[in-house]
Write a structure and sequence with these properties.
alpha+beta, Alpha-Beta Plaits, 3 helices, 4 strands, 30% helix, 26% strand
């Protein structure tokens, strides 16, 4: 593997994500509020509407409280290949 490949793997290992889970799913208003309020990217898959992944940062439930629907859980995850991610977001 070349130096660029090693750097890419190291960066992916250190990537930060916040996984939001809500059994009722997420409405577009919540997604828009997260994106505009946090100035961040959010990833979602149609096959997993009960999960959102905030890319690039880890947040606590307290920090996200103004944006969350009732029943939402928050989990900080580090590493793109971490099995705790419900899916791999597009980068």
């Amino acid at each position: 593997m070349d130096l660029v490949g090693i750097i890419v793997l190291e960066n992916r290992r250190k990537m930060k994500f916040t996984v939001l889970t809500n059994p009722k799913g997420f409405d577009q208003g919540t997604i828009n509020a997260l994106i505009s309020g946090l100035f961040t990217e959010v990833s979602q898959l149609p096959a997993k509407p009960d999960h959102l992944i905030i890319l690039g940062e880890t947040y606590t439930a307290k920090q996200l409280e103004p944006y969350l629907q009732p029943g939402t859980t928050v989990e900080a995850v580090v590493g793109y290949d971490n099995p705790r991610l419900p899916f791999r977001p597009l980068l």
